[in-house]
Design goal:
Blueprint (H helix, E strand, L loop, with lengths): L18 H11 L7 H21 L6 E7 L6 E3 L4 E4 L10 E4 L5 E9 L2 E4 L11 E4 L5 E6 L4 H4 L1 E11 L2 E4 L1 E2 L2 H5 L7 E2 L3 E5 L5 E5 L1 E2 L5 E8 L18 H16 L4 H18 L12 H7 L1
Parallel strand pairs: 11-13, 12-15
Antiparallel strand pairs: 1-16, 2-14, 3-6, 3-8, 4-5, 4-7, 5-6, 7-8, 9-10, 9-16, 13-14
Helix pairs in contact: 1-5, 2-5, 5-6
């Protein structure tokens, strides 16, 4: 009998192609060679368009983030994420009051004061600028803006999957409503424990809750879907799990074929859609299925 030979395995599980390797793979599938800087630039652009397509299809569930937002009494609208305004001193300002920029005339509500030199605010009307003085509408407090607030975190949000209101360590689910449902609420300033929310998916999206919060201690907790990080340079890695590598390579090859290999469009599109279907089918929530017979059925059998 022949000797049993044990083959050596690598022992590594860290294969992670960077942008350049995905582009090279895609060009090879198109029967092309990557030759110029423009080839790389146009491929990176296609890759970012592919990420936008995935967002529309709701594929990137690995980018789900949970956000905890302490509400402010009477404030019904909150950014889908966090907008932080850095200031010289925030202590004298009141929660839920309106602040106004002395130079920009921008306005926003104070939602929380996480530190002595910062406050989180609602989506501003206008643009606060560094070094300007802001004034509180209720407290009349003043301070200086250290740096202009960024909207990037909020604008990277795609949608909300679910939301709860937490009070005294108890989470109560709140229901999503449509734009029409929200519009038809007669009095949006009614206060109480919020039971419904509406997502206004603008470029800077916001979540609107109803009734308006009756205190400044409840927490709005929601799972949001955010954008995949852009492919800015060829040395970047891509924010996708291992199981999605084939789908990404196939999708990029298809997108490049639209510009550079028209004779391969159909076959590459078919491969991409097959890879996408496999990836989307795998990337889903799983839960045990329980089937409970109704009492009427049991009586009928008896």
């Amino acid at each position: 009998m022949g000797a049993f030979i044990v083959m050596a395995v690598s022992g590594s599980k860290d294969f992670e192609p960077d942008v350049a390797e995905y582009i090279e793979e895609a060009f090879e599938r198109c029967g092309l060679e990557l030759r110029t800087g423009y080839d790389a630039r146009t491929a990176r652009r296609s890759l970012n368009f592919l990420f936008a397509d995935w967002a529309n299809r709701g594929l990137n569930r690995w980018t789900i983030e949970q956000v905890t937002q302490t509400v402010a009494a009477g404030i019904i609208e909150y950014p889908l994420g966090t907008i932080t305004l850095s200031v010289a001193a925030s202590g004298s300002f009141s929660l839920a009051e309106t602040i106004t920029g002395g130079t920009s005339a921008a306005t926003a509500y104070v939602i929380t004061k996480p530190s002595a030199t910062s406050m989180t605010i609602s989506v501003p009307s206008g643009t606060f600028v560094a070094a300007e003085t802001i004034t509180g509408g209720t407290s009349a407090a003043t301070t200086t803006v250290s740096s202009a607030p960024s909207l990037v975190d909020v604008q990277s949000s795609i949608d909300i999957l679910s939301a709860v209101i937490r009070r005294s360590s108890q989470d109560i689910s709140i229901q999503r409503m449509s734009r029409d449902d929200y519009l038809n609420i007669p009095d949006k300033t009614t206060t109480g424990r919020p039971v419904q929310f509406y997502v206004d998916r603008q470029i800077t999206p916001v979540i609107k809750i109803w009734p308006a919060p009756e205190n400044s201690t409840d927490q709005l907790i929601y799972d949001r879907l955010v954008r995949i990080d852009d492919a800015d340079t060829s040395v970047n890695t891509i924010e996708v799990p291992f199981r999605f590598y084939p789908c990404l390579a196939a999708g990029l090859a298809y997108y490049i074929s639209l510009k550079r290999a028209p004779d391969r469009i159909q076959i590459l599109k078919t491969i991409y859609e097959e890879e996408f279907e496999r990836a989307a089918s795998e990337d889903r929530d799983r839960a045990s299925l329980s089937i409970v017979p109704s009492e009427s059925s049991l009586r009928a059998v008896g």
